[in-house]
Amino acid sequence: MEPVRPDLVPDAELSRDEMEALQHEIADAAVFVDDVAIDPDRLSNPLASAASEGEPPIVAGVDQSFLQDGDGTEDRALSAVVAMQGGEVIERVYAVTPLEIPYIPGLLAFREGGPILAALEALSVEPDLLLFDGSGRIHFQQAGIATHMGVVLDAPCIGVAKSLLCGRPRSDVENLPEGARVAIEANDRVDAPAGTLIGYAVQTRQYDSPDRYINPLYVSPGHRVGPETAADVVLALASSYKLPEPVRLADGYADEAKRAVRD
DNA sequence: GCGACAG
DNA sequence: ATCTTGTCGC
């Protein structure tokens, strides 16, 4: 797949103000409600797929790793994509591109967007849905990496983050039971009316011991997906591990490919 | 000045 | 995110 909005592709040469201005454009173009019918049950369950007509949807997980040069300085980013259909991997691709800027909270898409788009161009199948490691609408300008990629590609996207960038949970998120979700609403750090629902803390896995617990994932709409569906999809795809399977596999593939590139 | 900060 | 082996615990 390739960008349908080349004008909005993240450019690391921009000034910080220009980057944030672009993010406001992205947020304005983003659709934070369900735009396509995505049945979470058909994502990973082959039986549900067989029972209904047509092919099950293709879901892609995207994750990055980084390579160092001889000095130990990070100089390249590697983006890995794992595409799944009916619970099975149908394609894996990766791309390596030079690293342009350091990590700056809020500007992740300008650091990692290049290799992601390069890897997605190498992908031969057309995903119906993409999951990213990072935020979507849970972002200062409501334009996290999942939203940015979603608008540039005009594809349904979901952000899956392991920690909360901004916003505020409506209730305690400690030690939630498996399958639970807690709404995340905009606070004064988010460029949205206070109280706006921007995502969910989603507990995909949990221990049963009283002294230790697993932190939830922070799931938010990227583009063309609403917050409830985003949470439903992540729960449906996280069958045996904390991370939804496409993202977990992309995570592993990013490490595997990095080792291969190093040799 | 202080605090907060995806990967 | 990254440098890294084994190891403690359910």
From TrEMBL:
* GO MF, any single term: magnesium ion binding
Q: Where in the cell is it found?
A: Cytoplasm
Q: What is its EC number?
A: 3.1.21.7
Site entry (Interaction with target DNA), positions: 103
Cofactors, names only: Mg(2+)
Give the GO cellular component terms, alphabetically.
cytoplasm
Task: Give residues annotated as binding Mg(2+).
Answer: 63, 133
GO BP annotation list: DNA repair
Ordered alphabetically, the record's keywords are:
Cytoplasm, DNA damage, DNA repair, Endonuclease, Hydrolase, Magnesium, Metal-binding, Nuclease
For this protein, the record's InterPro entries field holds:
Endonuclease-V (IPR007581)
Q: Which Pfam families match?
A: Endonuclease_5
Enzyme class, broadest EC rank: hydrolase
**Family to which this protein belongs:** Belongs to the endonuclease V family.
Instruction: Sum up the protein's function in the record's words.
Output: DNA repair enzyme involved in the repair of deaminated bases. Selectively cleaves double-stranded DNA at the second phosphodiester bond 3' to a deoxyinosine leaving behind the intact lesion on the nicked DNA.
Q: What is this protein called?
A: Endonuclease V
